[in-house]
Specification:
4 domains; Beta-Lactamase; alpha+beta; 10 strands; single chain
Length: 453
């Protein structure tokens, strides 16, 4: 069933043709009257038309026919459309927009305005393809109800997301750069002239959307780089704070542990030296006791060194160090590492401490019965996966990037250009995945952290 706007559109189209044909007929008749009859009266030949004047009238009509037709088209459009912008004016303004040197971020707004004015739609939108996804670039008028659903194109230039919506893709050099979308007014479908205008704008908008898309992509990259810089700045601040805290802890442990053993050892050695001349037997007893004190000092220093950097990690590699470290875990841990190649020292250290952090988190929070650690390498990448069979967790809007342990793991991987992903499902446990390049960390991919519910 045809809509009132469709009937009105056909009536306007019919009246348009009538006005243009009437005007052209009047132009032809007037040309004949003025040239043939008027010219014949001037030269005194009124009994029969002059062949020469008839030929001249024909030539004049042929030369002026197209300009007169265009003028009549514009006049008919103004009479029938009133103050509306005609399709010819829209195309003209679009050409001016494309060549007037407008900033590329203003082009989508200009296009949506011209599209809405030319088609008489309720609103018009311009969508850009940015990073492979459609992104809304402009809506006109600005006070139109927000419509953020991506267009779904149909072969008949319709948009499947709503009634009365038209959508056409914009392509340039075979690449789809965006979509033009128009919402028709209630019960007022686009006329044939407006549909041709819509198609013409979509066909001509390729280069314009190309410029606008590049601008939007650059802005998106700039925003990503800014966020990355903020993350790196925060990461560096945390690293400095962690280093300061670790330095103070180390100073305290040395002062309260190894230093006390060494001071006592030095005092007893001086005592043995003092009494050696007067009581050799007593000096021998004192010296014998210092063997145990020396062993205590050595064990204290060894414990401190293991907390700083495991010797087994530097001697035998990541897999052996992890097997030895998790043997004392409060929760059973299995380690699977098949023929792992040696990695750069910084990479091995980052993966080692990330694994220990993940195992400690599982022991504290998972309430599970088993933790599995898997190490694999291939395609110049080393992958560490730590998974538990615990209670898991559900992501909330306030969990951010995780707790202190998660930040520590992220910072360590940031330092070697690694990636960290944490996924968890309530009742099904948690999996921590770290991926680092096996070559020089300076050439590895940029790090990122993701959390998945």
């Amino acid at each position: 069933m045809s809509s009132p706007r469709g009937n009105d559109g056909r009536q306007r189209s019919w009246w348009h043709r009538v006005l243009v044909l009437t005007g052209l007929a009047g132009f032809v008749c007037c040309s004949y009257v003025v040239v043939v009859l008027g010219g014949g009266a001037l030269i005194g030949q009124t009994t029969s038309p002059s062949l020469l004047l008839s030929v001249a009238a024909t030539v004049i009509v042929a030369v002026l026919f197209s300009p007169v037709q265009a003028l009549l088209d514009r006049t008919a459009n103004r009479l029938l459309h009133g103050a509306e912008v005609t399709p010819y004016e829209v195309l003209s303004r679009f050409a001016e927009t494309a060549g007037a040197g407008y900033p590329s971020d203003e082009l989508p707004s200009r296009m949506s305005m011209l599209l809405a004015q030319g088609t008489g739609g309720e609103w018009a939108q311009v969508w850009l393809s940015v990073a492979g996804r459609l992104t809304l670039a402009a809506t006109w008028p600005a006070e139109a109800p927000p419509e953020l659903t991506e267009p779904v194109l149909r072969p008949d230039a319709r948009d499947a997301t709503g009634a009365g919506r038209r959508a056409l893709p914009v392509r340039y050099a075979g690449e789809q750069l965006g979509v033009l979308r128009v919402q028709e007014r209630p019960r007022m479908a686009l006329t044939a002239v407006e549909e041709r205008l819509f198609g013409g704008l979509a066909a001509q908008a390729g280069l314009v959307l190309r410029l606008a898309g590049l601008s939007a992509e650059l802005e998106s990259r700039r925003e990503q780089l800014w966020q990355r810089a903020q993350e790196l700045q925060a990461s560096r601040a945390r690293l400095i704070e962690t280093q300061d805290t670790e330095r103070r802890r180390l100073e305290r442990d040395i002062h309260d542990g190894a230093q006390q053993h060494l001071v006592a050892l030095a005092v007893n050695l001086r005592l043995a030296q003092t009494v050696a001349g007067r009581s050799p037997d007593r000096a021998a007893v004192v010296l014998a006791a210092q063997a145990g004190a020396a062993r205590d000092a050595i064990e204290t220093l060894s414990s401190l060194s293991r907390g700083i950097y495991p010797r087994l990690l530097s001697d035998q590699g990541l897999a052996a160090a992890l097997v030895a470290a998790v043997s004392a875990s409060a929760i059973p841990v299995t380690v699977r590492a098949d023929a792992m190649a040696r990695l750069p020292a910084a990479v091995e250290a980052a993966l080692y401490f990330c694994c220990m952090e993940a195992v400690q988190n599982a022991a504290k929070h998972s309430r599970g019965g088993l933790v599995e650690v898997r190490l694999t390498d291939g395609d110049d990448l080393c992958t560490l996966v730590v998974s538990d069979d615990g209670v898991g967790f559900e992501r909330t809007s306030t969990d951010g990037g995780g707790g202190a342990g998660m930040l520590n793991m992220r910072d360590r991987l940031d330092a070697v250009s690694g990636t960290l992903r944490v996924s968890s499902t309530p009742g099904l446990g948690t999996t921590v995945t770290a991926v680092v390049g096996m070559s020089d960390p300076a050439g590895a991919p940029t790090s990122s952290t993701q959390r998945e519910g």
